[in-house]
Design a protein that fits this description.
single chain; alpha+beta; Thrombin, subunit H; 3 domains; 6-stranded antiparallel beta barrel; two-stranded antiparallel ribbon; 33% helix; globular; disordered C terminus
């Protein structure tokens, strides 16, 4: 797209002059490029390495590089590392460097000292999630045919989030484009995050990631940030005007995943804002107060949903790990009390023959130590039993041996125990089981937010975002005659 755009979901580039902060008079022409699916690259008609003292080493790295673009913007590049340099005849050098972040605005930024007053963000699918239609249309046929389009700005939604010590706002805006014989009005909504005290960029990045996961849960598919602006302060409009406007810089950084084409419309989104508006303050506060507790669960779940190229086996194992971790951290995951198990632990430890090699003795002691913890089978049974029966049947697709097969497959993939191979799911079975586990985790996270369990169950049973399960077609599927057969015996997990 055009060089002046700085959305996080599309490519852009900017030409200008680039230099090291310690050498402001040694500027090098070149171009910075941002590609959300590829490289963040600085291409120079020269090399920043040439400005470094002799003997500085073969690898060039700069924590900061400053730039000024041809359209008057000031740029700050972070973590710049030169990865290509070529000398041309007669002595001209070109180079390419990668970087981690690009900040574009009206000033250069020192990330170690700069704190921002707020952040303004746009997300894919967010306008559909807000489900606001501020336009009205009227047509009249009197002496003159007249059409009227009106826009009424919706109210801003402000929510104080105690866990962040910040205010989160859903802010409406409108763009107007007027050309000869043409008028265009576009409404959009954004998210503003304003902490009580200014925070550095890393704080905002952590909050935005958690906000992104929350919105993805409510939307029913992964969302991405499409714009990320940080407020460096306020500027007076003019000497004779008491009004002020915020000064923003654009933060351009790669994020896992990408926008999936056209934004969803409200009917395509399971938990739109109007559906949960009354509960939204509680949802936001609950989410940000539980993010540490739920971090393993949502991080592994989110990672598998945004990166579909992960091998099926890894997705399956990651989701199992997420559920195990969640159940363990939820407490109540012991067969006996600590005191009740101590007698058994002591007896088992003392029963180890004294002739046992030290390494084996330590390994046995470790297994005995954790022997009181629930098995994977027990954890899955307890977790699924909390799900309403009708929804549980949808998750496991009526497979009565779901838990048995999942446990056997996990154990085989982890230990490669050939005695379990006959009970292991085939490729399609692993894919389907991973989808079931993802749905189960979504149910857990949605109910952890405080959304009524009956509401979550009803929506997940009725909405096509959950009913239309992903399918896989395997042309070279390995044969496993008993992958879907019902087992009458169950091995110890």
């Amino acid at each position: 797209m055009g060089g002046k755009a700085t959305t996080l979901s599309e490519k852009f580039n900017r030409r200008g002059l680039w230099w090291l902060p310690s050498y402001p008079n040694r500027k090098i022409p070149g171009q910075v490029s941002f590609d959300p699916d590829g490289e963040l690259q600085l291409e120079l008609d020269g090399s920043l390495r040439e400005k470094m003292p002799i003997g500085s080493g073969d690898h060039f790295y700069a924590p900061l590089v400053f730039g000024a673009t041809t359209d008057g913007k000031l740029c700050t590049l972070l973590d710049v590392s030169e990865n290509f340099r070529q000398t041309h005849s007669p002595g001209m050098t070109t180079s390419k460097s990668s970087f981690s972040q690009l900040i574009i605005g009206q000033s250069h930024i020192d990330p170690l000292t700069t704190k921002y007053e707020s952040a303004l963000l746009e997300f894919s699918d967010f306008c559909g999630w807000m489900h606001r239609d501020p336009f009205t249309y009227e047509a009249s046929r009197t002496e003159v045919y007249k059409q009227t389009v009106s826009h009424t700005m919706p109210s801003e939604v402000k929510i104080l989030v105690s866990a962040l010590t910040a205010e989160v706002s859903f802010t409406p805006s409108m763009n107007t484009n007027m050309e000869y014989q043409q008028r265009a009005l576009k409404h959009f909504d954004s998210v503003q995050i304003k902490p009580i005290e200014p925070q550095d960029g890393e704080w905002y990045k952590r909050v935005v990631y958690k906000m992104r996961v929350l919105l993805s849960l409510l939307v029913g598919r992964p969302v991405v940030a499409t714009a990320f602006k940080l407020c460096t302060g306020m500027q007076q409009i003019s000497e004779h005007n008491e009004g002020c406007y915020p000064l923003y810089v654009d933060l351009c950084v790669k994020q896992a995943g990408k926008a999936k084409g056209k934004d969803l419309l409200p009917p395509e989104i399971p938990f739109t804002y109007p559906r949960i508006a009354a509960s939204m303050p509680a949802i936001l506060n609950t989410w940000f107060s539980k993010t540490e507790q739920l971090s393993t669960l949502y991080s592994l779940f989110f990672g598998t949903t945004i990166n579909r190229s992960i091998p099926r086996e890894f997705q399956f194992l990651a989701l199992i790990q997420a559920l195990e971790s969640y159940h363990r951290e939820s407490g109540g995951d012991k067969y006996l009390s600590k005191e009740g198990y101590e007698e058994i632990r002591t007896a088992l430890t003392n029963a180890i023959p004294k002739s046992t090699p030290a390494d084996l003795r330590d390994a046995l002691k470790s297994r005995i130590k954790y022997g009181n913890e629930y098995s994977l089978r027990k954890r899955l049974e307890l977790t699924l039993n909390k799900v309403p029966e009708a929804l549980r049947n949808i998750f496991v697709q009526g497979n009565e041996q779901f838990i048995f097969q999942v446990v056997a497959t996990r154990n085989y993939l982890t230990h490669r125990d050939e005695s379990l191979k006959d009970n292991v799911l085939d490729d399609k079975g692993i894919f389907d089981a991973a989808v079931s586990l993802q749905l189960l985790i979504q149910y857990i996270l949605l109910t952890e937010l405080g959304i009524d369990e009956k509401t979550v169950a009803r929506v997940m049973q009725e909405h096509h975002a959950y009913k239309n399960r992903p399918q896989i077609i395997l042309y070279n599927q390995r044969a496993k005659s008993n992958s879907h057969s019902k087992q009458t015996s169950t091995p110890n997990p």
